[in-house]
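Case study B.
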Amino acid sequence: MGKMKRILITFGTRPEAIKMCPLVLELKRRSDVQTIVCVSGQHREMLHQVLDVFGVKPDYDLSIMKPKQTLYDVTINVLQKFRKVLAAERPDVVLVHGDTTTTFAAALSAFYEQIPVGHVEAGLRTYDIASPFPEEFNRQAVGVVARFHFAPTLRAKRNLLAEGKDPATVYVTGNTAIDALETTVRPNFTHEVLDWVAGDRFLLVTAHRRENQGEPMEQMFHALRRVLVERPQLKAVYPLHMNPDIRAMANEKLGDLSNLRMVPPMDVLDFHNLMARSTLVLTDSGGIQEEAPALGIPVLVMRNTTERPEGVEAGTLRLVGTQEEAIYEAITTLLDDPEAYQAMSQASNPYGDGTASRQIAHILIEQLHEEP
Ligand code: UD1
Ligand code: UDP
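Model:
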């Protein structure tokens, strides 16, 4: 028998953690491989919230986060610190997730060390390098170095094949976001925010994209403000991202509204359960575009592009851009037109059956044992 294979799984932000923890837990259950977890700490509080919910304890925490960090800060720090972890551990494969700068820098570092990379949530594309920024670059760059591409959908696989990836390295597994949802959403959920909502209809809001900071976010906030001022019966819950610039603008533009609750980032259990009970989600988030279709909750995506057209085709997502008028129109239409609402809330989940982690673990272990 050869030496036991070693898998190093790495991530650094909230959404990566939500979608990698199910895979960590799955790999840790397998006695035929050793699993090492390294978090970059690109996020701090928002990352540790997720680790706590899933009970994942990292072997390494690079703790790189700084207030108002730049893309340079994140890239340089991950690259240099991850190099040392790779030198110490010499894993057989490094698993990265999606499209953050942690993902890009960790994959680059593994490439420099000539250690194979497995890319979880591979093949999402807008083919607009400026949107989302810098994520479209990050995921394409990881695609260049990856040895294993775990695509959530057939469409993602087709993108990779059209780019010339070897079909033998691309696997369709579903998205691990669905695995996470299966453990978080509960029928008997209670929360202080739901008590405040008191059975009224409510909007759930999130916003954080780099390319939306500034003018586009101001437009979003104006639209939300108009809707909430015109409709005192309607409520909105907005868990703020910890980015200090976003918090400042949200407080300035929306802080005085009594039918809006701005709260700190919610832990994923609370957030998923709240989303499942919301009337409508307004967001520029990526992960929420996968979760909402599975929950049958309509989402207005406040962006100009999406790498998740499956949800748009399934009818649960609408890409509304970042102009006040268009966002206002889209919200009021859904609130006032039951048929339009009904059409969007038809539950339909294009992202798999909640077994993505199991499939990825199975494929990876099989492949690692086949290789010399
Ligand atoms: C990052 C990812 C983005 C992902 C998002 C998920 C990059 C370039 N961007 O963007 O792809 O969609 O995470 O949320 O990789 N902060 C805290 N505590 C935290 C987290 C953030 O204080 O737990 C503050 C810090 O001041 C930090 C700032 O937020 O400097 C921005 O964080 P950063 O990770 O650079 O960017 P995000 O917009 O979160
Ligand atoms: N989320 C959370 N708490 C919140 C807001 C979002 O747990 O207060 C979850 C959400 O369910 C999704 C993920 O965080 O799984 C999305 O993260 P984010 O929007 O920060 O990043 P993106 O998906 O855009 O990369």
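Residues 123 and 140 are 8 Å apart (CA to CA). The remaining cases will be described in the next quarterly update.
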